[in-house]
Amino acid sequence: xxxxxxxxxxxxxxxxxxxxxxGDGSLLCDLKDSKNINGYGIEIDPDQIELCIENGVSxxxxxxxxxxxxxxxxxxxxxxxASSIQCLKNPDVALDKMLDIADCCIVTLPNFGxxxxxxxxxxxxxxxxxxxPVTWYETNNYHLCxxxxxxxxxxxxxFILNKRKYxxxxxxxxWLSSLRPNLFAAEGVYLIEKx
Length: 195
What we know:
Layout: H1 3-10, E1 16-20, H2 26-35, E2 38-43, H3 46-54, E3 59-61, H4 64-67, E4 76-82, H5 91-101, E5 102-110, H6 115-122, H7 147-157, E6 159-167, H8 175-179, H9 181-184, E7 187-194
Parallel strand pairs: 1-2, 1-4, 2-3, 4-5
Antiparallel strand pairs: 5-7, 6-7
């Protein structure tokens, strides 16, 4: 099941959604069509913002690290941060603020602990994978983490991991990625709430 299908299953019909790092807005478009959501996107890349506008997505140009608190007076049912959390300077602070403005949040992240990443590091180079597709000098990633690192952070901060899916390199669930996610999952998908 692709990541977008997992996200769609976790979002209720007619929800108020904010998507941090929304890219071209295609996820929000899909959610509007399939779940009749009221959605807003936050994006910093001007080219992606242009695509959002072309796609009819309400988008605000904002740096996530500095702008989440600007939405504190809004009441969102769910916040989404798909494949963006590792690009933030303070992902722990961002998670906390996201859960202040929304009842829950969906976070997806590439797993730096995946066996392929470990092998690449062992061989003396930074990994390039489907989940981490660019070389070290082109990436916006500040804080790469493993599945275990992320789940430990959530436990330390008192975040509840309501649902989680561990996906292999084909972005599908498998018995191996579920059995040993820190080693065999290429991507983690989480539905998180505050205690």
